[in-house]
Amino acid sequence: GEDVEQSLFLSVREGDSSVINCTYTDSSSTYLYWYKQEPGAGLQLLTYIFSNMDMKQDQRLTVLLNKKDKHLSLRIADTQTGDSAIYFCAETEDKLIFGAGTRLAVHP
Amino acid sequence: DAGVIQSPRHEVTEMGQEVTLRCKPISGHDYLFWYRQTMMRGLELLIYFNNNVPIDDSGMPEDRFSAKMPNASFSTLKIQPSEPRDSAVYFCASSSSQGYGYTFGSGTRLTVV
Asked: Do the Cβ atoms of A57 and A65 come closer than 8 Å?
């Protein structure tokens, strides 16, 4: 069945790059997504990548997709304290299946 | 557009009472999803609708849970009777078959005591 796995916690220093990793199982997923959730808020779509792409860059965000290994990563350049949140990877065919989320903590 | 609107934001109720959560999707979106988020189980898809018709309710935990979408601009999730283990944040999301990604509401935090 469908499954998405992420590491649960990442701590980085302000100004460094953050890399959040995700593995998924459904090779038929058309899109793969990254969502951000701040405390007390809903999920906000950060970025997505189409399954026939290897990389997508959007300002400080870079998404890398390795379809062979079913591995997705999100790189945040110049990480700021405002980036502290939970980041969810999600795959989809007819419905979004989320990972457990990676809590990113940014410290000075 | 005001986005996906959920009400109430917070609900505290006693065990055994009926709870109704409400959602207004983004105008023009033809899919609507109900998710539940807990620390233990993460984000779980409960049910989703396409053009107001329930497509997959396999995530609904048990018969105490029911969801309706009487029209394109309104959906409800009802729990009757409620139990303490139903305490969670319930999110509604909508999407368009012509677009990508889901837009989430701010959620309803339900506490059953």
From this structure: no
Identify the H or E element spanning B56.
Answer: strand B53-56
A61 vs B: CB within 8 A:
no
A29: closest CA of chain B, how far (Å): 12
Report, as ranges of residue numbers, the positions in chain A whose pLDDT lies below 70: 1-2
Which 3-state string (H, E, C) describes A17-66? Answer: CEEEEEEECCCCCCEEEEEEECCCCCEEEEEEEECCCCEEEECCEEEEEE
Enumerate the β-bridge partners of residue A106.
A12
pLDDT digits (tens, 9 = 90+) for A33-54: 999 999 888 999 999 998 888 9
Which residues of chain A lie closer than 8 angstroms to B93, CB-CB? Answer: 43, 96
**Residue B49 sits at the chain A interface (C-beta within 8 Å):** no
pLDDT tens, residue by residue, B34-92: 999 998 888 999 999 999 999 999 999 889 999 999 999 999 999 999 999 999 999 99
Q: Tell whether B43 is within 8 A of chain A (Cβ).
A: yes
Q: Which residue has the higher pLDDT, A29 or B30?
A: B30
